[in-house]
From TrEMBL:
CDD domains: PBP2_MalE
Protein name per Swiss-Prot or TrEMBL: Carbohydrate ABC transporter substrate-binding protein (CUT1 family)
InterPro entries noted in UniProt: SBP
A GO BP annotation: maltose transport
Taxonomic lineage of the native organism: Bacteria, Bacillati, Actinomycetota, Actinomycetes, Micrococcales
Region described as Disordered: 405-428
PANTHER family: MALTOSE-BINDING PERIPLASMIC PROTEIN, MALTOSE_MALTODEXTRIN-BINDING PERIPLASMIC PROTEIN
Native organism: Terracoccus luteus
Pfam families, A to Z: SBP_bac_1 (PF01547)
Length: 428
C-alpha cells in the first residue's frame, strides 16, 4: 500500500521545496522565453488559504485537504464548492473585483483568458513540469509561461462491444482509421447494430470528437509559430471529410438526440461503439449490469499518418496573483501533485492522475482498461491557450453540425471557421 500522506507532506516540505524567497517579486525568464514564478520558502505551510473547486471535486477536496492540514498544523484550508455552470462568471467577476481565492481549480481552456487578465501567478521553479503528461502540462502554459499545474486529466478513447465485434468478424479493435470505418459498418451488417458507431453530430463540444482524427493525421490548430489559428489546414479538412462520411454512409446517426443515450444504446447493442472518456466505464457498466464489463473493451484512437492521438482535458490548479498567502498556496498545490497524493485522489474521485509516475499505483496499474487511457495520454493534445478559444470554437461546433447534418462541404465549412477565427483574433 502507499506510504502515508503525512510522510509525503513531510518529505515535500523538507526537501522538494528547497526554495529561498517569499512573495511574488523577482520573476526570472525561463529558457522558453516565459516567466518562472518566484521561489517559495522551505518549511511547513502556515496561515489560511481559500480554495475554489467545481462540481464533485469541490465536494471531495476537503477530505484530502485535512491530510495536508494534519501534516502542517499551522495551516487551514477553506474549500468552497462551486457549480460548473456558474464557475466561469464567478471567476471573471472575482478577477474584476480583485476578490479571487488564493488557489482555484481552473478549466484547462480558461487558462489563456485568466492569464491574459494578469490574474494568475507564474509557477515557481521547484515544480517539475516534466513530471506531468506533456499535453496536460501545455494546458497550463500561456506565451511560454506556466501558471499552475495540471491537477487531473482525461482523454478520449474508443469504446467497443468486444462480444459484438467477434460476431462482426473482428477479434481486436481497429488500429487505423480505415479499419474503424470497416468495423463500424460490419457491426451493422453482421452484428445487428442499428448504427455502427455513435459520433456527435455537431453541437457544443463536438470538436473534441473530431480533432483526435485530425491530430492523428498531424494536424496543428495553430500556425505562424503558434501565433495564429489554423482551422482550414489540409489535415483538419480531411478529418472533417472522414468524419462526415460516417453520417453520409449511414453508419452514424445524424439525427441523434441532443441529450445522449450512449449508455443504454451501448448496453443494448444498438450503438456498439463510441468515443469518450474514462467516466464512461462506470456509467456503461452500471447500465449494462452484472458481467457487462466483460462484454466491452477500450482501445486507442485508430491511427492516422502521424500515429494515434486524442484530446487531453481535465482541470488545472492555479494560484491567483492577489493571494494573501502565496507561500502556503503553492505548497498546497505542489502537495497535490505528489504521486502518492495523486493516487489517493484517484481513489476518492476516480480523476486520473496528471503525474506520470502516479500511474504505477496498484489501483491504476492493475486495470487493463485504465492502462489504455494512460497510454493515450502520452500523445494526447490540447487546444491552444488563446484567450479567445472558447469564443472561436463555437464556430467550429456550428460548422461541424452543418457538415454532419446538412452535408455541407468540409472545405468550405473549415474556411468559414478560419475566417471567423481571424476576425475574432487570438486575444494576445
Amino acid at each position: 500500500m502507499r506510504r502515508s500522506l503525512a510522510m509525503t507532506v513531510a518529505t515535500l516540505t523538507a526537501t522538494a521545496l528547497t526554495l529561498t524567497a517569499c512573495g511574488r517579486g523577482g520573476d526570472a525568464e525561463s529558457a522558453s522565453g516565459g516567466q518562472t514564478g518566484a521561489a517559495v520558502s522551505s518549511g511547513k505551510a502556515t496561515g489560511t488559504i481559500t480554495v475554489w473547486a467545481m462540481g464533485a471535486e469541490g465536494e471531495k477536496l476537503p477530505t484530502l485537504a485535512k491530510e495536508f492540514e494534519s501534516a502542517n498544523p499551522g495551516v487551514k484550508v477553506k474549500v468552497t464548492a462551486i457549480p460548473w455552470d456558474a464557475a466561469h462568471n464567478k471567476f471573471t467577476a472575482a478577477i474584476a473585483a480583485n476578490k479571487t481565492p488564493d488557489v482555484a481549480m481552473v478549466g484547462s481552456t480558461w487558462m489563456g483568458e485568466f492569464a491574459g487578465l494578469d490574474a494568475l501567478d507564474p509557477t515557481p521553479p521547484a515544480i517539475d513540469r516534466s513530471a506531468f503528461f506533456e499535453g496536460a502540462q501545455k494546458t497550463t502554459e500561456v506565451n511560454g509561461t506556466s501558471y499552475g499545474i495540471p491537477w487531473y486529466v482525461e482523454t478520449r478513447v474508443l469504446f467497443y462491444r468486444s462480444d459484438l465485434a467477434k460476431k462482426a468478424g473482428f477479434d481486436s479493435a481497429p488500429t487505423d482509421q480505415a479499419g474503424l470505418k470497416e468495423m463500424a459498418k460490419a457491426m451493422q451488417t453482421k452484428a445487428g447494430a442499428k448504427w455502427g458507431i455513435g459520433l456527435q453530430a455537431g453541437g457544443t463540444g463536438s470538436w473534441q470528437t473530431l480533432m483526435p482524427f485530425a491530430w492523428s493525421d498531424g494536424a496543428d490548430l495553430t500556425k505562424d509559430d503558434g501565433k495564429a489559428y489554423n482551422f482550414d489546414s489540409p489535415q483538419i479538412v480531411d478529418a472533417a471529410k472522414y468524419y462526415q462520411s460516417f453520417f453520409t454512409d449511414g453508419i452514424s446517426d445524424k439525427a441523434a438526440p441532443a441529450t445522449p443515450t450512449t449508455e443504454p444504446d451501448f448496453a443494448s447493442g444498438k450503438v456498439p461503439m463510441f468515443i469518450s472518456g474514462p467516466w464512461m466505464m462506470s456509467a456503461v457498466e452500471k447500465v449494462g449490469g452484472a458481467g457487462f464489463k466483460d462484454k466491452y473493451n477500450v482501445a486507442p484512437i485508430p491511427a492516422g499518418s502521424a500515429g494515434s492521438s486524442s484530446f487531453v482535458g481535465g482541470s488545472n490548479l492555479a494560484v491567483f496573483k492577489n493571494t494573501q498567502n502565496r507561500d502556503a498556496s503553492w505548497k498546497f498545490v505542489q502537495w497535490l501533485a505528489d504521486p502518492d497524493v495523486q493516487a489517493t485522489w484517484y481513489g476518492l474521485s476516480t480523476d486520473l492522475p496528471s503525474v506520470k509516475s502516479a500511474w504505477d499505483a496498484p489501483d491504476l496499474k492493475g486495470d487493463e482498461k485504465l492502462a489504455v487511457f494512460g497510454k493515450q495520454l502520452e500523445t494526447a493534445k490540447a487546444p491552444p491557450s488563446f484567450p479567445t478559444w472558447e469564443q472561436v470554437v463555437t464556430s467550429f461546433d456550428t460548422e461541424l453540425e452543418k457538415v454532419t447534418k446538412q452535408g455541407a462541404d468540409p472545405s468550405t465549412s473549415m474556411a468559414t471557421v478560419q475566417q471567423n477565427a481571424e476576425s475574432i483574433g487570438t486575444g494576445q
